[in-house]
Amino acid sequence: MNSMSEGLTKRQQEVLAFIAEHQQVNEAPPSLREVAAHFGFRSMTAAADHVKALRRKGYLKHRPHQARSLRAVPSPSTPYQPASRARIVDVPVYGCIPAGFADERRQEDVEGCISVDVDTLGVKPSPRTFALEVRGDSMIGRHIMEGDYAILEHGMDPRPGDVVAALIDNESTLKTFVKQRGKPCLKAENPKYPNLIPAQELVIQGVMVALIRKVR
Amino acid sequence: MNSMSEGLTKRQQEVLAFIAEHQQVNEAPPSLREVAAHFGFRSMTAAADHVKALRRKGYLKHRPHQARSLRAVPSPSTPYQPASRARIVDVPVYGCIPAGFADERRQEDVEGCISVDVDTLGVKPSPRTFALEVRGDSMIGRHIMEGDYAILEHGMDPRPGDVVAALIDNESTLKTFVKQRGKPCLKAENPKYPNLIPAQELVIQGVMVALIRKVR
DNA sequence: CAATATACTGTTCAAATGAACAGTATGAGT
DNA sequence: ACTCATACTGTTCATTTGAACAGTATATTG
Fold first, then answer.
1. Is the same domain home to A120 and A44?
2. B90 CA, C9 C1': separation in Å?
């Protein structure tokens, strides 16, 4: 009955979607005239009315008399909303993680950043979260392909079956964490690499919590 | 020697920092008068000059004659940490997409939202972007597992080898788009489902551009 | 039927804002 | 000494833009 629970008309949904999209694509909200132009309104009052209705219903906010200050209010029904920034974490992508991991992760090793949504991936934001670009096909049995980005959490306790990153021959490699006769071991998920490595001998750098793959 | 490698004066760094910070805190870049006011300039030309210098040196961009269009440009030499640079899009997750796709995507079918970073996934945000939770193992040959989230783009022209979502028996299913004797066909990537379906008979709802998997 | 919300056209006003012009002063570099 | 970038003051102009007023038309609802 009151704000936010009120339904939107089709036109209002369109206007809201345009504003939210414009915000994302052009990195700035549209002016009222741009809204009018986009929908072919010959009067900007039309756009202003829709914005007013959306404000009244709680889907938009703005700062009065300030240019391009429209802001879509978070709601599960509208795609394109800028998620609250707090939920987004920039995760560094490492090519290779040196041995002294937690102490000093050198910036030189960072190959880039990927941004992930905390809720989406179900990971808690922490400085111990990082990403590795997958090299080779040693984990193909777990359907992890070369070029995939593995999101890992450092300092987690690996459970049997977890995919972990370990430092082998001064290179970060993904393996499955298993227990063999009570002893923790690492194994590759590819018949080409049949060896089972005792986990005590190596540094486990992180446990995989998510995977991101770009295609095309 | 030229743009971007040029150093900044202390004042210019301050101005750049203020603009970047204002962008984050107020969710909008400052106007030139606001910059002047913040630094106590009694003339906005002072602010304009600094902005001009920062633009010349490649640290700022703007759209001419557009209010609040200043944008800090990512730069390796300035540590201004723009979390605002991440362009996050909430993509709706559909369980099943009805036939009349583009016309009306009903809110009821949205199962949730996942947030993706545009730069990370390399997808342009558009209302045609959506996500599907993968059901079944028909695409296991492409290492797409049950429970994965496929990010798809509607209206893209599929190329042979692309993974596409098609409406089969009123359900959205992932298939590989192939050409068989010049005819576009869809095939599952699992020997259990050997049938090849002529693509003309169905609605292709989108082309997969990325994949997200949560584990643990 | 009256009241109200929606969905617009057409116009006007004033505030917000970017941009430009004319100066002053200082310091660094050539 | 001369030039040039920096760092400002003070002013004016033209656009951009939000906001408001006066209407028209349609559909919904009590």
1. no
2. 36
